[in-house]
Amino acid sequence: MTAHSMPLKLLVVDDEPAIVRFLRTGLGGNGYTVLTAGDGHAAMELLDRDEVDLVVLDLGLPDMDGLDILIRLRAAKSATPVIVLSSRGEERTKVEALELGADDYLVKPFGMAELVARIRVAQRHQLMREGERPLFQVGDLTVDLVRRIVTVRGARVPLSPRQYELLRLLVQHAGKVLTRDFILREVWHSDSNVQYLRIYIRALRQKIELHPERPHYILTEIGVGYRLRSPE
Amino acid sequence: MSSLKDRTPDPGPSGAPLSLVKVKLIGEPPWFGPKKTNRRRDSARASVHALYRDDRRRPPRRWYSFPFGPLDHWPAGGPSTERYISAVLLVAAAAGVSLLLRQFLVVGSLVLPFLIAILLTAIAYGQLPSLLASVLSVLTYDFFFLPPIYSLTVTEPDDIVRLVVFASAAVIVSNLAAYARSQAVSASQRAEVAEDLYRFGRQLAGAATLREVLDSSLPRLTAMLRTPVLIILPDDGNLAIYPAGQSQEPTPGGGFPGAALTGTEFAAVKSWLQENPSAGAATPEPHSIRWLFVPMRIGQGKVGVLAVAQSAMSKLLVPDSSALLGTLADLLAQAIHRIDLADDLMLANRTAEREELHAALLASLSHDLRTPLSSVIAAAESLVDGGATPDENSRQALARSIQDEARRLDLYIGNLLDMTRLESGLADASMSRIDLADAVSVALDRCAIALSAHQVTVDLAANLPLLAGDEVLLEHVLFNLLDNATKYTRSGTLIQLRAYRDGSKVTILIMDEGDGIRPADLERIFDKFYRGKRQGPQSPGIGLGLSICRGYIEAMGGSITARNRTDRGGAVFTITLPVPAEKDLPDLDT
Predict the structure, then answer these.
(1) Are B106 and B122 in contact (CB under 8 A)?
(2) A→B interface, C-beta within 8 Å
(3) Of chain B residues 547-586, which have a CB less than 8 A from chain A?
(4) String of DSSP letters for A150-187
(5) Do the Cβ atoms of B431 and B539 come closer than 8 Å?
(6) Positive or negative, the Cα torsion across B447, B448, B450, B452?
(7) Burial annotation A42-79 (CB, 10 A radius, 16+ → b, else e)
(8) Residue B60 in this model has a pLDDT that exceeds 70
């Protein structure tokens, strides 16, 4: 990973003092500089004024919907990574946030380790935007994006063009959750038929995973989509 | 009702065919009571009570059959005349027979054909024609057979006695026969009424809702009474009038038939129904010229009012029909009352159930949520206070217990939320094509810590079709079942998850090697807040998991059941989900 000379500056937007305190302590302890905002307006001001490297955004704010901040941020062409905090059972909100440009989400309650891992993935994707690395490797899985060769546990895996497209999309966003609609749009150029995706994921797992019923690489984000295990 | 009794029957235009639709026997033998000229009215008077006369053409009712055919059916125009003519003809026939027999028999025996003619007349045509036949017979017999022949005079004392005896016999025979006839008629009509009432009662007894009572009784009442019928029930301060087509608003002008109640009628019925029995002067029962209002009561309670139209088309004839109407109204009142009671009972049950649920919820909150919370607080206080600065190991243990207990709390609260969502119907399964494997892998992952002490095997058939459902809900179910299995079995035992296709269904089995479930609990464990008495090393929980599972699986059109393993100790939870109709699936290009 890229070494940071400057500590990353994070903005935590949440109206729960306890959560804010926990995040400030936890993230500070992991070497981040933490700004906090208790409501939407304070967050917008901070985002206008300060250079922020990443936003941790709670969706339930007292003065506005957290999604509005996301919309404004993306409308202003800002690529600042956003990690959304949501409550349990709000799969639709999660999907909506991801579709609106959030980079990831975490369901409350969550652990600090989980959050830090997500922040790192989002951060890495931010840095990688400029140039793809030609060789992707996680565990026993290697994907050569130039030669379009996939190997698992040392053996080459033949994939159909579309299966390869699907895997390449996951590799490009390794560690990030991709919504089903996003994958369908990118690979099939239509988000109408989710059963295609299900069948292809199943086929891909059969070829890549040692235990397809307990996948190690292609992980299911229930109710949302899929995520390829990140190399870390 | 008393008003009805005072009303005299409307004789109706003479000669119109009368339909005795509803009759009732009051048991007054007609021996020599006052007689009227109309045979049918006669029988009605004697023992039969006609409800109304229907002038509309309708098929004749065959209420008595005679070798000659249906004798009560007369062509329109003069039934009584024809009956008397028939009486005369029968007497003439008897005279002919007697003339033929005159050579062979003594004069005294020649009365027998006449007696037969009188008997036949009485049975076939009733009392008055038979009286005519009697008189004619006596005169004919005297004229043709008693010397001096062809004269009405009688000279011999023997003949005078003969004539007097014959006349008396004729009258007695005619009366007896006519009575027998009316008895037969009324018996068959009584049987018919009884059958109608029986059917009506059965129909009402079978009705489970007010709608059913109304739907079954209104057409039947209209058919039985051959007149429009309304059922009027109190409805939250107003009146509900059925059939529903009937406007509740008073019709100006009050066209009839088909119109509902006029304003006055409406008000009268309403005030009678709403009258408080304890409040002094009683409101009179509603009256109207157009409607006959029959109260429906249960004891002192007023259930409603049965309104029977008295139209020009069908007029009520006899006041005592009120007995029948009363019976009908009673039957209706009982049926409606029964349904009210059933509704009340259901409401009470539901309330009780809800209260029980609230009590269980409170118990759960105070015990099941506070227990882990107490551990968290205790552990956190030890960490904060430091005390004798615990070593790193015990600090770790304390922190871990906080973590574990807090996770447990989170699960409980999640389950409570899920249940609330299910209860309020918000858990709408968003149905799409899902892969069971996705849900299985996530559930196994989420349950990994609890499962780490057990052996787990997963066996998903290769040909599993995609399912129609909500993967979030399905994952919840699998997680709950796996989590349960870890709670109720000893560590080191095997937990198996299998799924296979079985025709148009996919069956998912989750088997453990614990002590199983008490047979009596197999169904009850799916009840809210019910905790089975499963033996296990630990059985924490609030008894919601399985009822949530059932709610979710049913929302996806499937079913979930529990049973005990037969091959060894342990429980099996079986989920079945329907396989959706196959659409064109993409080539897997493998």
Answers:
(1) no
(2) 88-89, 91, 109, 160-163, 194-196, 198-203, 205-207, 211-215, 219-220, 222-223
(3) 583, 585-586
(4) EEETTEE----HHHHHHHHHHHHTTTSEEEHHHHIIII
(5) no
(6) positive
(7) bbbebbeeeebbbbbbbbebeeeebbebbebbeeeeee
(8) no
- B 61-100 residues with CB below 8 A of A? none
Written as six digits, the tokens of A33 are 């500089």
Quick one: chain B helix, strand, coil %, rounded to 5? 50, 15, 35
Alpha helices in B262-369 (DSSP H): 263-274, 321-364
Instruction: Evaluate whether B163 touches B114 at the Cβ level (below 8 Å).
Output: no
- DSSP, res A65: B
Mean pLDDT over residues B10-38, rounded? Answer: 41
Beta strand A54-58 with A9-13 is: parallel
**Tokens 């019910």, residue?**
B530
In tens digits, what is the pLDDT along chain A, a chain of 232 residues?
444 457 889 999 998 888 899 899 999 989 899 999 999 999 999 988 878 999 999 988 888 888 999 999 999 888 899 999 887 667 788 889 999 999 999 988 888 888 999 998 888 887 766 556 788 899 999 999 888 899 999 999 999 999 999 999 999 888 889 999 999 999 988 866 888 899 999 999 999 999 988 999 999 998 889 999 988 7
DSSP string, B412-430: HHHHHHHHHHHHTT-----
Of B421, B458, B588, the CB nearest to A199: B588
Q: Which residues face A144 on adjacent strands?
A: A135, A149
CA distance B447 to chain A (A): 12
Indicate the range of A195-199, A208-212, B202-206, B308-312 predicted with least confidence.
Answer: B308-312
Pull the structure tokens for residue A26.
């936890």
How does DSSP classify residue B475? H
Q: Do A186 and A196 contact (CB within 8 A), yes or no?
A: no
Q: How far is B407 from chain A (nearest CA, A)?
A: 9
User: For B229-239, b where at least 16 C-beta lie within 10 A, e where not — what string?
Assistant: bbbbbbeeeeb
DSSP 8-state assignment for residue A149: E
State which H helix or E strand residue B296 sits in. strand B291-298
- Alpha carbon B497 to chain centroid, angstroms: 48
Among candidates B267, B249, B271, B316, which has minimal Cα distance to B289? B316
CA angle in degrees (0–180, nearest 5) for A172-A8-A111: 75
Report the C-alpha gap between B441 and B474 in whole angstroms: 11
Structure tokens that stand for A148 in this block:
């379009």
Residues in Cβ contact with B144 at an 8 Å cutoff, skipping those fewer than 6 apart: B95, B98, B99, B150
Degrees, nearest 5: CA angle A159-A160-A163: 80
Phi-psi region of B266 (alpha: psi -120 to 50; beta: other; left: phi over 0): alpha
Task: Tell me the sheet residues that pair with A86.
Answer: A107
Q: Does B406 touch chain A (CB under 8 A)?
A: yes
CA B113, CA B115: separation in Å to the nearest integer? Answer: 5
pTM of the model: 0.56
Say what the pLDDT of residue B46 is. Answer: 34
